[in-house]
Design brief:
The protein is of the alpha/beta class and 437 residues long. It has helices spanning 22-35, 70-73, 95-104, 116-129, 157-178, 193-201, 220-234, 249-253, 255-264, 289-304, 319-322, 328-345, 369-372, 390-397, 404-408, 410-419, 424-431; strands at residues 9-14, 39-43, 65-67, 109-114, 134-139, 181-186, 206-208, 241-246, 312-317, 355-360, 363-367. α1 packs parallel to α12 (328-345), α5 packs across α6 (193-201) and α16 packs across α17 (424-431).
Length: 437
């Protein structure tokens, strides 16, 4: 990839939610650019201020951006969070305002760090600039759901899984000590990678992800019965457990069914509000999904299986992970991505197209936005967990949940039915539909 040396000033910003490794990516971009005598300007809070009118961007004292020298960034790679902040501001309706800011700052190249929404925004900025701005995007999300080549992870995922595993392992010890069941809701809007990774590594009793069901909408009763089946099976030896639920189950259930379930409890206000962000996504963090599941399960056990009555504790897991200090994997990975972004922007290819930066087998891989974004939805084609793959098959084997073989074995069926104080045939009629028995 031949290099071009005509870049003078590079802008960098972060969009979307935090992820471990952002500062390392910022550091790598700034160091590599400065090494080529390219001045680096960090824009604060994503596109938040870039879309505002009335800001004098050429003012040396402008409070919404900062120059990044090597001395400014040489120690930040070990830190979580983002020294530039972040936001979910959608700039696509104020593109001329954004470009005006870049012109005033004499920015001729831009690096964006973010997920699919930020990638789409970056691509729109590039198109609107009509060749006046080179653009590279560094994909990040702890959800690991962006369609990178092969099994290449998104940066932040490995750290989030690592920290999440430690936290769920602690909860499992508490469950064992107190005889409780924990319902842990893990971040992961479009795919269950993070939930499954945490659940498998921490040896959670049960992990449920939207991909396993294979149909939408997923009835809440189906989810509740799967958990209750796990409790019944587990009760033969243990009175405690941990269930990890991917937050993507909220969208798999569907907004209408979710509202109906909230109303059915008699206290719908107890579970938060259903809102959407600037990009049209349901704000899953506003919905107390774990609390709702706890209440539904508590009532169901009390009414149908009083002998199994237990204490449920709900716990949301996600915000604890996003600004964690990155593990070495994500530090090394983001250094590669930041270096690669500057290398691309200095190349002749960057004068012809924008690109997203990925690494495969130690080599930089450039992805066109067209192969990343769905042309209809303008969002990334999510990389989902494959329920038919051996990785999911292995994870499933370590869970304690009802399986078809439990119903095929008369003695196993009798024992399960006895644990639920039911006759075998009644137990089959009640739970067999979960596994096609």
């Amino acid at each position: 990839m031949s290099a071009s040396t005509n870049l003078k000033r590079l802008g960098i910003l972060v969009g979307g939610g935090p992820a471990p490794g952002i500062n390392s990516a910022i550091s790598a971009v700034a160091i590599e650019a400065n090494n080529h005598n390219i001045e680096v300007i960090g824009f604060l809070d994503g596109f938040k201020w870039l879309v505002r009118d009335g800001i004098e961007w050429s003012d040396p004292e402008c409070p919404y951006c900062r120059r990044l020298t090597i001395d400014d960034v040489k120690q930040i790679h070990l830190r979580g969070g983002s020294i530039l902040g972040t936001s979910r501001t959608n700039p696509t309706q104020q593109l001329e305002q954004v470009l005006r800011a870049f012109r005033e700052m004499e920015i001729d190249a831009l690096v964006t760090i973010g997920g699919d929404d930020t990638a789409y925004s970056a691509h729109q900025v590039y198109l609107a600039a009509k060749g006046a701005l080179r653009v590279a995007h560094i994909p990040k999300t702890i959800d690991n759901d962006l369609p990178l080549p092969g099994s290449t992870p998104t940066f932040g995922f490995e750290t989030a899984r690592h920290v999440g595993t430690m936290l769920v392992s602690n909860l499992a010890e508490d469950a064992r000590t107190t005889g409780r069941w924990y319902l842990v809701v893990s971040m992961g809007r479009a795919a269950g990678h993070l939930a499954l990774g945490i659940g498998t590594a921490s040896a959670a009793t049960l992990t449920l992800i939207p991909e396993e069901f294979g149909f939408h909408p997923v009835p809440i009763k189906y989810i509740c019965d799967t958990i209750i089946g796990s409790i019944i099976k587990r009760s033969q030896k243990r009175n405690y457990g941990v269930v990890v639920l991917a937050e993507g189950l909220i969208e798999a259930i569907g907004e209408q069914a979710l509202v109906e379930a909230m109303k059915a409890t008699g206290t719908p206000d107890r579970y938060g509000d259903i809102k959407r962000d600037e990009h049209g996504h349901l704000r899953l963090g506003e919905i107390e999904f774990g609390r709702m599941m706890k209440d539904l399960l508590s009532v169901q056990l009390k009414n149908e299986f009083p002998m199994l009555q237990t204490t449920f504790i709900d716990k949301d897991l996600g915000y604890e992970l996003r600004c964690a200090r990155p593990i070495p994997f994500d530090i090394e990975y983001t250094r590669n991505l930041g270096y690669g972004a500057v290398k691309f922007l200095r190349s002749e290819r960057a004068s012809q197209s924008d690109a997203m930066i990925a690494f495969v087998d130690g080599r930089m891989h450039l992805m066109a936005f067209e192969e990343f974004l769905n042309p209809q939805t303008k969002r990334a084609l999510p990389r989902k967990v494959s329920p038919q793959g051996e990785a999911y098959e292995c994870a499933r084997r370590y869970m304690i949940r009802l399986e078809k073989r439990d119903f095929d074995n008369p003695e196993t069926l009798r024992q399960l039915a006895a644990s639920a104080n039911m006759e075998p045939e009644a137990f089959r009629n009640r739970f067999g539909y979960l596994v096609g028995a």
